[in-house]
Write a structure and sequence with these properties.
The chain is α/β, with parallel strands linked by helices and 639 residues long. It has three domains: 260 residues, Aconitase, domain 3; 139 residues, Aconitase, domain 3 (2-Layer Sandwich); 173 residues, Aconitase, domain 4 (Alpha-Beta Barrel). Helix content is 29%, strand content 19%. The chain contains 21 helices and 27 strands. Strand 13 and strand 14 form a beta hairpin. Helix 2 packs across helix 3, helix 6 runs parallel beside helix 7 and helix 16 packs parallel to helix 17. The structure holds alpha-methylisocitric acid (MIC) and iron/sulfur cluster.
C-alpha cells in the first residue's frame, strides 16, 4: 500500500495500537530534547522513575530560556541540569550554545527519526524530515526512561507548495498565510506534510521556520521530505552520513489537501494578540514602530541574520526604534560575526543579544507602555513580552528589517526590486566544544541541587467525587502563557510551591489566594483551551492548588495531555450553550467520577439544583492515569 511520510515514520516506530486515525498509538522515541525551563522538572521526574541511564539513542538537554540569571536560581538550575545529564547519559548543551531547536537541527537531527521534546516548537525538526513532537516534561521523562510516547494516530494533511517565493517574501510569510487560512484552533490531531515543486527553493532552515510555527496551528507536528536540499544542509554541517531519502509514495492518501502557490504569497504580519490574526503588511503601513526584535527559534538562522544585515548595511535605524538582534545559535553568531554581518548590524544601531530565547519569552527586552514591537518570533500572546499594554506584531526578518529602517510598519518590497543575495557557505563552522558528551563512567557523578530545586509534588489518587467552586471562567483561546506566565516568573519553574503563586496571574492575580481559600476548585473555559507552550506547570501548578477538573468547549493537544498527566479531569460540554449558564462561584458536583470517566459522559450538578451534561473522550490508558492521580503514580503502580 502507498504511504505518506508520516505513515512511513510511524510504521517504523509504532509499538502499540494500529495506524487507524483517531485511535491511540504508542511510539518508540529515538531522540529527546529538553530546555532548561521545562527540563528541571522533566529530569526530577526522570529521577523519580528510578532508571540508571536514558534508554533513547540520544537525549539532549539545552539551556536557552532562563538565561538572565538575576539571582542564584537560574545558575543553580543550570548546574543541576549539567550534573543530572552527566549521571544519566544525556548530552548537555551549555548556556550560550544556542536555542534548542536551532542547535538540534544543526547538530543532532536525523531524517526519519522520532524526536520528543519538552517544548512545543520541537516540530522544528520536521524541516529535516523528522517526526518531531512537543510534549510535557513528564512525557519526555517517560520516553527517556524507555516508555513509548502515546498520542492519537494523526490525520495527515497534504500541503502542496508550488511556484517560488517573490523577492522580499520568505518562509515566515508562508506559515503566516497558513495560520490565516487554518487559524490556531480546530487542528488538533492533524499533521501537516509538505510536498510539491515549491520545495526545491526552500532550504532546511526555511522549511524549519514553517514546521516551527506549525505549532501555532495546534497540529501534532509538521514534516518535510528528506531530499537533496536536506542532504546539502547536512553536508554543510559535516553530517552527511546521517542523511537518507524520505518521501511519500506516489499514490499516498491524505485526509485533506491544501495547495499554496508560493509566488502568490505576500509579506504578512500577525497582529496582536494571536498568531492567526494575519494581515498583509501593505495594508498596515504607517503604524509607528518602537521596537524590532530579530531572532528566536523561528527566524534565527544564518540566512535570516545575513539577510537583515544586508538590508541594514550602511544605513541607520531612526532614534525612536530599539533594534535587537539575537542569533539562533552560537554557530550562527560566530559565522555572522566572521562574515562581518554583526559589525554591519551594530553600525546600523542594532543591540546584539545572546543566542537565547530572550525577548521571545519576555526574558528581557520588554517593550515600553503601549509600544508597538515587531518581532520575528512565533507568539504574540497578550503579556508574553512582559508588557501587558504592548502590541506585538509577528513578521519575517525582511519585514522586520524594513520596519526598523522606516520606524513604521513597512512592506519590505519597498526596499527594492531584488532581494539581497545571500550565498551560504558550503561548509558551516563546526565547533561542538560547548556540548558536553557523557561517558559510561560518568554515572558515578554527583547531582548538584540548589535551594531552588524542589521535588515533584506527591499527588493523591482520584477521589470518588469532584466537588468545588468554579474558581475562574475564561473565554476562547486561553494560552498556557495566561495560565502560567513565564518572563520574570520563569526562574521559579523548579519550585512548584513558589511558581503556583502566579497561576492565572495575567487574568486574575487573586486566583492563587482564591484557590487556597477554597482548597481547590474547577475552571470553566471556552474553545481551544491551553494553546501555545508545552509547559506542564500550567497543569501541575493548578493541581498543586487543588484544581481537579477543567470543563471547556475544547482543548489543545499538549495541554490536555498535561492535565491528565497530573490528574486533572478534562471535560467538554455536551451542549456548548451550557457554558453560558455557568458563573464563577457556582458549586459543581460530579459523583462517581471513576465510573463516569469510563462511561465517557456524566451529569454535573450545579448549586445543588440544576445540572448539565459533560463528555470525556479518554483512552483506557488516560482513564488509568487519572485514577492513579497522574503519570508518575501510574508508572509506580506498574512497577
Ligand atoms: C514557548 O515558546 O512558549 C516556550 C517558552 O518555549 C515553551 C516552553 C516553556 O514554557 O518552557 C514552549 O513552547 O513549549
Ligand atoms: Fe525559545 Fe521562543 Fe522558541 Fe519558545 S518559541 S523555544 S521561547 S525562542
Amino acid at each position: 500500500m502507498s504511504k505518506n511520510i508520516v505513515q512511513k515514520i510511524i510504521e517504523a516506530h509504532i509499538v502499540e495500537g494500529t495506524m487507524k486515525p483517531g485511535t491511540t498509538i504508542g511510539l518508540q522515541i529515538d531522540q529527546t530534547l529538553t530546555q532548561d525551563a521545562t527540563g528541571t522538572m522533566a529530569y526530577l521526574q526522570f529521577e523519580a522513575m528510578q532508571k540508571e541511564r536514558v534508554a533513547t539513542e540520544l537525549s539532549v538537554s539545552y539551556v536557552d530560556h532562563n538565561m538572565l540569571q538575576d539571582g542564584y536560581e537560574n545558575a543553580d538550575d543550570h548546574h543541576y541540569l549539567q550534573t543530572v545529564a552527566k549521571k544519566f547519559g544525556i548530552v548537555f548543551s551549555r548556556p550560550g550554545n544556542g536555542i534548542c531547536h536551532q542547535v538540534h537541527l544543526e547538530r543532532f537531527g536525523v531524517p526519519g527519526k522520532t524526536l520528543l521534546g519538552s517544548d512545543s516548537h520541537t516540530p522544528t525538526g520536521g524541516g529535516l524530515g523528522m517526526l518531531a513532537i512537543g510534549a510535557g516534561g513528564i512525557d519526555v521523562a517517560a520516553a527517556m526512561a524507555g516508555y513509548p510516547f502515546y498520542c492519537t494516530m494523526p490525520k495527515v494533511v497534504k500541503v502542496e507548495l508550488t511556484g517560488a517565493l517573490k523577492p522580499y517574501v520568505s518562509a515566515k510569510d508562508v506559515i503566516l498565510e497558513l495560520l490565516r487560512l487554518k487559524t490556531t484552533k480546530g487542528n488538533v490531531g492533524k499533521i501537516f506534510e509538505y510536498c510539491g515543486t515549491g520545495l526545491e527553493s526552500l532550504s532546511v532552515p526555511e522549511r524549519a521556520t514553517i514546521t516551527n510555527m506549525g505549532a501555532e496551528l495546534g497540529v501534532t507536528t509538521s514534516v518535510f521530505p528528506s531530499d537533496s536540499v536536506t542532504k546539502t544542509f547536512l553536508k554543510a554541517q559535516k553530517r552527511e552520513k546521517v542523511w537518507s531519502v524520505l518521501e511519500a509514495d506516489e499514490d499516498a492518501e491524505y485526509y485533506e489537501e491544501i495547495t499554496i502557490d508560493l509566488s502568490k504569497i505576500v509579506p504578512s504580519v500577525a497582529l496582536p494578540h494571536s498568531p492567526d490574526n494575519v494581515s498583509h503588511v501593505k495594508d498596515l503601513e504607517g503604524i509607528k514602530v518602537d521596537q524590532v526584535c530579530i531572532g528566536s527559534c523561528t527566524n534565527g538562522s544564518l540566512k535570516d541574520i545575513l539577510t537583515v544585515a544586508k538590508i541594514l548595511k550602511g544605513k541607520k535605524v531612526p532614534s525612536h526604534v530599539s533594534l535587537i538582534v539575537a542569533a539562533g545559535s552560537r554557530q550562527v553568531l560566530e559565522m555572522a560575526m566572521r562574515a562581518g554581518a554583526i559589525a554591519d548590524l551594530v553600525a546600523s544601531g542594532a543591540r546584539i543579544a545572546e543566542s537565547m530565547c530572550g525577548f521571545c519569552i519576555g526574558v528581557g527586552q520588554s517593550p515600553g507602555t503601549n509600544a508597538v514591537s515587531v518581532r520575528t518570533g512565533n507568539r504574540n500572546f497578550l503579556n508574553r513580552s512582559g508588557t501587558k499594554s504592548a502590541k506585538v506584531y509577528l513578521s519575517s526578518p525582511e519585514t522586520a528589517a524594513a520596519c526598523a529602517l522606516y520606524g513604521e510598519l513597512k512592506d519590505p518590497r519597498k526596499l527594492g526590486k531584488t532581494s539581497p543575495k545571500i550565498t551560504l557557505p558550503q561548509t558551516f563552522t563546526i565547533d561542538d566544544s560547548m556540548i558536553d558528551i557523557p561517558t559510561e563512567s560518568d554515572n558515578e557523578a554527583t547531582i548538584f541541587r540548589g535551594p531552588n530545586i524542589g521535588n515533584p509534588p506527591h499527588l493523591q489518587p482520584m477521589k470518588n467525587a469532584i466537588t468545588g467552586k468554579v474558581l475562574l471562567k475564561v473565554g476562547d483561546k486561553i494560552t498556557t502563557d495566561h495560565i502560567m506566565p513565564a518572563g520574570k516568573r520563569l526562574k521559579y519553574r523548579s519550585n512548584i510551591a513558589k511558581y503556583s503563586e502566579f497561576v492565572f496571574e495575567p487574568i486574575d492575580p487573586k486566583f492563587h489566594e482564591k484557590a487556597k481559600k477554597e482548597k481547590g476548585g474547577i475552571i470553566v473555559a471556552g474553545l481551544s483551551y491551553g494553546q501555545g507552550s508545552s509547559r506542564e506547570h500550567a497543569a501541575l501548578c493548578p493541581r498543586y492548588l487543588g484544581v481537579s477538573m477543567v470543563i471547556a468547549k475544547s482543548f489543545e493537544r499538549i495541554h490536555r495531555a498535561n492535565l491528565i498527566n497530573f490528574g486533572i479531569v478534562p471535560a467538554t460540554f455536551k451542549m456548548v450553550r451550557d457554558y453560558g449558564q455557568l458563573e464563577e462561584g457556582d458549586i459543581i458536583k460530579l459523583n462517581a467520577v471513576k465510573t463516569c470517566i469510563s462511561a465517557g459522559h456524566a451529569s454535573v450538578e450545579v448549586n445543588g439544583e440544576g445540572s448539565f451534561e459533560v463528555e470525556f473522550d479518554l483512552s483506557d490508558r488516560e482513564i488509568a492515569l487519572l485514577k492513579a492521580g497522574g503519570l508518575l503514580n501510574y508508572l509506580k503502580e506498574q512497577v
